[in-house]
Design a protein that fits this description.
Layout lengths: L1 E2 L10 E4 L13 E2 L1 H9 L3 E13 L2 E11 L13 H7 L13 E5 L14 E5 H7 L4 H4 L12 H8 L24
Length: about 190
Amino acid sequence: MTIHAATSPEAHPALVLNADFRPLSYYPLSLWSWQDAIKAVFLDRVNIVSEYDFAVHSPSFEMQLPSVVSLKSYVQPSRNPAFTRFNVFLRDRFECVYCGCGDDLTFDHLVPRSRGGQTTWTNVITACAPCNLRKSDKMCKDIAMWPRHQPYEPTIYDLHNAGRQFPPNFLHESWMDYLYWDTELEP
């Protein structure tokens, strides 16, 4: 396919909505490349909800690039998010739970691993490198260094709500009816 306009198709991702017209995820925002969106259209897996004013074409075919697509079949969202570094940072709003700093973030085990602490949602928090080094392998009570909130196992809805506080740098106008950055997701 050749490009019909001066800009690149890579600058035209498609927002992917579930069959209920909610984004599959907010953070990271569920986006597909233009190639994946077109492939899904041809495989009849999605409905085109909105299009860019931008087309790609081959010698015998031209197509406007989709800006919003919805899945034809509902995908049940996972209720238990994966335990990952990113998801821990997202749960803790990308801030050190001790001092509130947002730079040089690391994991910290409230009960240190050297003292039998496990790597679980309820024992791991986000800490900046200086706070993590200061705490080291000590217990919070031993050095009077207390987290501002206790760690917890988030639901997928908790992470979606947290992700809404960090909208992407680029939000196409056709996406705005489907993105609710300031409202709560209901379980």
